Amino acid sequence: MKTISVKIRERRVELGLSQKALAEKSELSSRSVFAYEAGEKVPRPATVIRIAAALGVSPEYLTNDGMEYDENDIRSAYLFAEDKRFSEQVEKSASALLSDNIAFFRSTVATQAEKDSFFEGIMRAYLMCKGK
Hints:
The protein is mostly helical. The protein folds into 2 domains: 66 residues, lambda repressor-like DNA-binding domains (434 Repressor (Amino-terminal Domain), Orthogonal Bundle); 57 residues. The chain is 74% helix and 0% strand. Helix 2 crosses helix 3. The longest helix has 36 residues. The chain is elongated and about 65 Å long.
């Protein structure tokens, strides 16, 4: 059984990365990477996700001491990274849409009837997506 510190170090070495390079790829300090590899500190869940993405493995592989590395884990890590990237894009798009809608509803250009009609359309679309 390998601990998270051993798994991080072994995978980093396997990829030919220095601690500094891993720190840059995972947006951490070199000191943090050293502390995780030395077992001085345990990374928080959000940090595990960043380290896993930088190492091309799944967060589950890093956190499960009994899990051994295999090629299928690369596929899992890729899918995880793609899902995270897609979620971030959706969040940015939703934020932009919300800002646009707030501006529309605050405007005095549209009549109240137009605003009500727009809101009803948004609600219909939302309910259709929710399957209701």
